[in-house]
Amino acid sequence: MSKPIPDDLPLHPAAVGQLHMLKPSDETPLFRAIGQEMSASLEQLLTLADSGYDISAALKDLAQCATEVDTSASEIQQLGAQLDVARDTYTRESKDCTPASVDTWNSYCSGELSTPSLATIMASASASEGQPSGSRKSSALGPEGKLLRMLPLLWADPRAVIPDEDADSDDVVIDGGHIELTCPITCKMYVKPMISKSCQHVFDYDGIREYIGDNGSRSCPQAGCSKTLTMRDFAPDPVMALRCRLATIQEHQASAGTASQQLDVL
Fold first, then answer.
1. With DSSP H G I counted as helix, E B as strand and the rest as coil, what are the percentages for the chain, rounded to 5?
2. Quick one: which of 35, 50, 183, 190 has the fewest CB in 10 Å?
């Protein structure tokens, strides 16, 4: 006995427009708000660290949360791509089917006539895409995203070299070597680090401003760099700023620990 209602019917021409209106909701504002809240949490943790608290576990948890949010954003992005593929496939294959009508209804109910299933096509597209890795060229959390994911590594070693996140990797890893936290112009730890968008070299704001002076432009002071720089080429470097702050906190904690040991000896 045939079913009273077919499992699937070919796409009706009048429904094509409605089908193409289907898309995942844009959660960008939500993810950016989450990034700002996480940055506020980081600031609170650093304030606690200034007072001598061990924030290692909390930084690891915060970084894990950032990774999970980015993974969720990747899932939404991937869902949109899968839906585009499934929608185009379903529309194309439906054109080759016999139109549904009173005359063909029973044939579709009995299975004599068949039509592609949007749900099946969507599932196939999802399986072929695989699972989202959570790796993105830019974090869904905004500028704070990558910095948040670096937290445990930078806390372990503020001078660690951390390469750009690879498209095939879900983890930020240490690449070896170390980063100087001293401005090559002022020869002091960065206070307001600025990174060149032209050559990626970092200088302290006061140092590079004085170096360029009234000339408007000047060759990069980094040895071996031939780029000509202006103040417009520079933007704040939040990663270097965080490195310096973490290093300062750890130096203060080490000094406090040494002083405490000396008092214990006395």
1. 55, 5, 40
2. 50
Q: Which fold has domain 1-172?
A: Four Helix Bundle (Hemerythrin (Met), subunit A) (1.20.120)
CATH of the domain spanning 180-266: 3.30.40.10
Structure tokens at 152: 């445990």
**Given the structure tokens 């990069």, which residue do they identify?**
220
Helices (H), 21-143: 28-50, 56-94, 105-110, 118-129
Give the pLDDT confidence of 196-240 residue by residue, as tens digits: 999 999 999 999 999 999 889 999 999 999 999 999 999 999 999
Could you identify the residue written with the tokens 């130096």? 251
String of b and e for 115-132 (b: at least 16 CB within 10 Å)?
bbebeebbeebbeeeeeb
Angle between helices 144-156 and 238-265 (to 10 degrees): 30
Report which secondary-structure segment, H or E, holds 122. helix 118-129
Q: Which phi and psi (to 5°) does residue 218 adopt?
A: -165, 155
**CA 165, CA 171: separation in Å to the nearest integer?**
7
Question: In this model, does residue 172 exceed pLDDT 90?
Answer: no
Token look-up 């409605």 returns 18
